[in-house]
Amino acid sequence: MAWAGVSALRIHRNYQHFCDNPFLEVLGCLVVSTAPLLLLTGGLAVGISRWNTGPWQGLFLYGVMVLLCVEASSAVLARTSSCQRDWETHVLDDLLHQYGNQSDPKTKAVDRLQEELKCCGIHNYTDWRVMGHISAPTSCCQKIFLNCTGDLSTSQQLYQKGCLPKLEQLRRVSSATCSGAVSGLWFWSCLLHSSVDSS
């Protein structure tokens, strides 16, 4: 559970220039905060079977209700946290048009994105030509070609896929991981609740 939340927070931090959606950060925080609450509620469920007193049962019920509310909020955020494709394309287009100054954080972000995701341009490497660049950045070069300069005429040395589809895939995996963790937590809460009801 905590791993899924930390994963969402890490993705938001690494790629915030390209998808500045605060919901992904909120989702990560919600999922991380749910893990200790789940442990506390689980401990109460185990203790209730031994203590069997009203105040502990009330505290357990309160914990389960808070968990269900957090889970529902997380599920809604996971479903709606995706950025719109048109907006992402616009942001990437702006960043690629501004590319050039090596000390600019946006240029460094584009280079890091292309190196980490092994991609080039928005849709593919030809985006650099369309934007008026003579060559692609060296961050578009496949690592197996040591003498790659980003020359667009030697396209076999460049990453062929664009960054937009790779960013979308990364976001889908992150949202699916958080949704799966929340679903598992919901299932676990239902099991705990039914075990307390039966005892």
From TrEMBL:
The chain crosses the membrane at residues 23-47, 59-78. It is a multi-pass membrane protein. Pfam families: Tetraspanin. It is found in: Membrane. Keywords: Membrane, Transmembrane, Transmembrane helix. GO terms for cellular component: plasma membrane. This is Tetraspanin-3-like isoform X2. It comes from Phascolarctos cinereus.
